[in-house]
Amino acid sequence: MLILIMGVAGSGKTTVGKLLASALGWAFVDADDFHPPENVRKMMSGVPLTDEDRRPWLEDLRALVSGYAANGESLVLACSALKSSYREALASPAPEMATIYLRADPGLVRQRLAQRRGHYMPAELLESQFEALDEPTDTMAIPAAWPPDQIVAAIRDALGV
Q1: Beta-sheet strand order (sheet of 2-6)
Q2: Considering the domain boundaries, does residue 7 fall inside one?
Q3: Residue 158 falls inside a structural domain
Q4: pTM, rounded to two decimals
């Protein structure tokens, strides 16, 4: 099974994903670690990524998901997956995928990004994240403002894991 934790930068995907994976004893992968250096440089410069920029990144993530699925292993993946086409690409190799959308208010995310250190995603790209977001309607949406432990409990209750 694949549990995709998605949302804009600063919504808490990595924090929630790590906690959930630990609670379940599953592998955790942060999609940010798979961006090629040129994408990271572009984002650090305050330039939003295009679909073309994201294509190799998504292909690598899709291959990763496919590998876990082929081995019958479960995975928690933290990935922005802002567009429905990105989520579809990630879901195609997974026999079973649950998408959890961390719905975040722009003000909350701005505050979190201002406090975040050591990440290449600058706060000035936040607007482009919300512009690119195809808000999912067929997934579990959880307020990103909830405490991480409460989010993990809600996910586990909803999915029965």
Answers
A1: 27-30, 75-78, 2-6, 97-103, 140-143
A2: yes
A3: no
A4: 0.90
